[in-house]
Amino acid sequence: xxxxxxxxxxxxxxxxxxxxxxxxxxxxxxxxxxxxxxxxxxxxxxxxxxxxxxxxxxxxxxxxxxxxxxxxxxxxxxxxxxxxxxxxxxxxxxxxxxxxxxxxxxxxxxxxxxxxxxxxxxxxxxxxxxxxxxxxxxxxxxxxxxxxxxxxxxxxxxxxxxxxxxxxxxxxxxxxxxxxxxxxxxxxxxxxxxxxxxxxxxxxxxxxxxxxxxxxxxxxxxxxxxxxxxxxxxxxxxxxxxxxxxxxxxxxxxxxxxxxxxxxxxxxxxxxxxxxxxxxxxxxxxxxxxxxxxxxxxxxxxxxxxxxxxxxxxxxxxxxxxxxxxxxxxxxxxxxxxxxxxxxxxxxxxxxxxxxxxxxxxxxxxxxxxxxxxxxxxxxxxxxxxxxxxxxxxxxxxxxxxxxxxxxxxxxxxxxxxxxxxxxxxxxxxxxxxxxxxxxxxxxxxxxxxxxxxxxxxxxxxxxxxxxxxxxxxxxxxxxxxxxxxxxxxxxxxxxxxxxxxxxxxxxxxxxxxxxxxx
Length: 519
Fold this sequence. Notes:
The protein has 519 residues and is of the alpha/beta class.
């Protein structure tokens, strides 16, 4: 895979200076147009072995473009805060907004490659991580991102020569460390691992470009020209970019579905409700204080019909928790900052670390509910969102998250009764708006969207719990008891069906990863 990057490409300094003048002008023009249109973001990954000139290449890009609208992210070993979150969490935080260019030195590829080289993870776990990265990049591309991945290549002799040259110059000697020389011992293993990784992640929407790096002028000019060419082509491309999506929705032949099958007459007497609610709150309070819970996070997702009682259920649940341990995230229409990012970005920022609880009052499922029904996104967008959401939740599960998803369902008549009650009660009037009445007219559309959502995102390890909510007391108790049951199943029965162990097939590999991550 690296043969074409070992041919001895060189560019003399005069040619380099002449070409750079034209390149800078064109890059600035393209960058200005990108910023003005604000239609997509650009991600440039600069990867390669030690001494291949990654830092120098990034410095050149900075000097050739307007640094106000270009930023670099350098990812070293994860911090304690980052280790307490899922693997991809810190990379989501570093994404550039639309209209900007982000340059990544060290990226989501660096740590898996390093850990595979030194034998901390096996081939199966490495391939699993690669599959996760592929899905991440596919999602970004479907959201419109332009992804350019450069692998700067040096031969083993070229790497040794570069280290000696840097050591001789007092201005650059500090850049050569013992670890740099040690990397020569793992050079062959890096080529093996990198070659495998490049083959699996070299997609049409996020291609790898291998660049020979023995000559500084050739390397930087090549990268600059390729960035310019890709940027200009995308700016001229007026077509909507579409990649493979989920299968189309199948038509239904009768009126029976997961919502119509619910028995909405279920209810609890007041005394029974009070006893069971208090019991569930006590259980929940104890469970989240168990030592084993520190290895997990708890993520609770609440969706439901308007006026179905999500807020009241969340209040009863949160009363059992220490206020320092949980956070409630009510999800409204996205802000301008959030609209400049992929739709999952704002939710990744709120993912709790281990030992904490996050309660989402409406969530990422807005893409396949409100945005679908109201036409805020295209059919292509909401169709592909099913698999993207499943991938997102699977990543959280692999990191130890305990995820429960609740849909609270009420009848159309009960919703009307609650709407009218809210309008007639002074302290409840803020809960009812014109939008609620407008949404009610689309009851059937939302009904179909909910059924499709449950069908496509209720997975074996993260199923939807459908809650009969005509009786608020019944709904609250059902939710709290479900949360407690799930926590008891994970924390007391064991983790053999949970998180990464369920997918790695080898428990000791996960222990090894945690041990390394903490050092």
